[in-house]
Amino acid sequence: MSLDFVHEMSFASAILDAVMKVARENNAKRVKSVHVVIGNLLMLNPEQLKFCYDVVTKGTIAENSKLEIEVVKAKIECTNCGKVFDEYVGICDECGGILKVEGGKEMFLKKVEMEV
């Protein structure tokens, strides 16, 4: 089993735990869809995450629910010159300054559609 698969499987299990908690709190009979927001720095493959989610939901009220994934990018900026980067590269290639990273590691449930 690859480490990537283990990585996605652990996140899929965490999503299911959160979904089941919301479902219990609302006396849900079935979960129809789940919308999650994940940061790009978590390095999750959305297709693998969906596959793992389908695996961990088997036999639960979330089985056959649709997983929608919204990936949000981290804001990466040089603290010295203000240059903005698409990915973390260590130090600024313009001035050698330190990069500040905001976000990119979040994961939260945005919406859970249930049948109650």
Helical amount among residues, as a percent range?
Answer: 25-40%
Measured distance between first and last alpha carbons: 37 Å
Rg calc = 18 Å
Secondary-structure arrangement, i.e. CATH architecture:
2-Layer Sandwich
Q: How would a crystallographer describe the biggest sheet?
A: 3 strands, mixed
- The low-confidence parts are none
Give an account of the 3D structure:
The protein has helices at 3-25, 46-56; strands at residues 30-39, 66-72, 75-78, 84-85, 99-102, 107-115. The chain is α+β, with helices and mostly antiparallel strands and 116 residues long. It has one domain: 2-Layer Sandwich (hypothetical protein PF0899 fold), CATH 3.30.2320.50. It starts with a helix and ends with a strand. The mean pLDDT is 93.
How are the SSEs placed, and which strands pair?
Layout: H1 3-25, E1 30-39, H2 46-56, E2 66-72, E3 75-78, E4 84-85, E5 99-102, E6 107-115
Parallel strand pairs: 1-2
Antiparallel strand pairs: 1-6, 3-4, 3-5
Helix pairs in contact: 1-2
In short:
The chain is 29% helix and 31% strand. The protein has 116 residues and is of the alpha+beta class.
What key phrases describe this protein's structure?
about 120 residues; alpha+beta; hypothetical protein PF0899 fold; three-stranded antiparallel sheet; elongated
